[in-house]
Amino acid sequence: MVDSSAQLPVGVLSLNPAVDITYEIPKLIADQKVHASGSRYDPGGNGINVGRGLKRLGVQACTFCVVAGEIGRFLRHQLATQLDQVGYLEVEGETRINGTILESLTGAQYEVSGVGPAVSEAQREHLLEQFVTHCDEGLGVITGSLQPGLPKDLYAEAVRRLRAAGGRPVVDSHDEMLRYAIDAQPFLIKPNRFELEALVGRPLAGPKDIVREARLLLERGVTWICVSMGADGALLVTPTSVLKGEPPSVPVRSTVGAGDSMVAGMVARLAQGASDEEALREGVACSAATVMQAGTELFDEATVERLRGDVRITRLAL
Ligand SMILES: Nc1ncnc2c1ncn2[C@@H]1O[C@H](COP(=O)(O)OP(=O)(O)OP(=O)(O)O)[C@@H](O)[C@H]1O
Ligand SMILES: [Mg+2]
């Protein structure tokens, strides 16, 4: 059990959470109704996933979450057992519903992401204020999509405010949201390889190329960069080290939530004062344990425990 008194405060920003519906079907056929062999409802959205992951790891965190309407009420009901501490902001409209279809005959996975409710300037100001106050000199996770209409530099603003309060911002985002956030100099970013390629505007051939680009971002004021590379694991680049973390070979059921689990694992250990190596190990173990789960289900602690020692960490001389 984790001694929470020795833990830094952790906050997670979840502006656009969702209820996820997953249908398992044999195969989609155009113009024909297909009956699901199974269906499930899960709380969704990147921030919610990170919050759920942190709770599973025994870390106290508060998730700041926008909810709306009856779907929002359903989401709150689902979250009651999945998050310890939640700061809800109620807005007009309806929380979005995301759909995932798993085809058993082909193994294909289809995902549709819904549109979330509008959040006014005053409302997001209020939520941001609460988030920054909670995080204090701890860690603040900024992740997930922004509703259409929200400024693309909102995450950059969150990063600036967290830093001004002495906290360490962790950003998992993409495109302009990530680009702006980088200008505000977050502590940690976790792009996957494709997000990094999009950011730098060129394909990255291998670790050498990735590390070169990561170092340029470090020069721009990002403290740590973790680049995730699917089954190949992840590279963690810091001012003093380049570490590669490789997961053991695991049976893959669904990769949904892998990135969120990696963020949760790393943040959990950082909040407890762990080293770069320990943080990477935990991120890789948690994410590998998540791909073993069906649908949107996240890792279970027993599997993380089992995988932890099998994660291979190498210090690269690049
Ligand atoms: N097939 C796999 N086997 C083992 N581990 C995996 C596999 N796929 C992903 N992982 C683990 O999950 C981590 C994150 O995966 P990935 O690089 O796909 O992130 P992502 O694209 O951000 O994911 P997401 O789609 O959840 O946002 C990897 O670094 C790795 O540790
Ligand atoms: Mg991701």
Provide structural commentary.
This protein has helices at 46-56, 69-79, 121-135, 154-164, 175-183, 193-200, 207-219, 258-271, 276-291, 301-308; strands spanning 10-14, 18-25, 38-44, 62-68, 85-91, 96-103, 109-112, 139-143, 168-172, 188-189, 224-228, 234-237, 242-246, 312-315. It is an alpha/beta fold and 318 residues long. The protein has a single domain (10-315), classed as Ribokinase (UDP-N-acetylmuramoyl-L-alanine:D-glutamate ligase, 3-Layer(aba) Sandwich). Helix 8 packs antiparallel against helix 9 (276-291) and helix 9 (276-291) crosses helix 10 (301-308). The longest helix has 16 residues, at 276-291. The two termini are 37 Å apart. Bound molecules: adenosine-5'-triphosphate (ATP) and magnesium ion. Magnesium ion (MG) binds at residues 172, 192, 259. The site of magnesium ion has 3 residues, from loops.
Helix/strand layout:
Blueprint: E1 10-14, E2 18-25, E3 38-44, H1 46-56, E4 62-68, H2 69-79, E5 85-91, E6 96-103, E7 109-112, H3 121-135, E8 139-143, H4 154-164, E9 168-172, H5 175-183, E10 188-189, H6 193-200, H7 207-219, E11 224-228, E12 234-237, E13 242-246, H8 258-271, H9 276-291, H10 301-308, E14 312-315
Helix pairs in contact: 1-8, 4-5, 8-9, 9-10
Briefly characterize the structure.
This protein has helices spanning 46-56, 69-79, 121-135, 154-164, 175-183, 193-200, 207-219, 258-271, 276-291, 301-308; strands at 10-14, 18-25, 38-44, 62-68, 85-91, 96-103, 109-112, 139-143, 168-172, 188-189, 224-228, 234-237, 242-246, 312-315. By secondary structure, the protein is an alpha/beta fold.
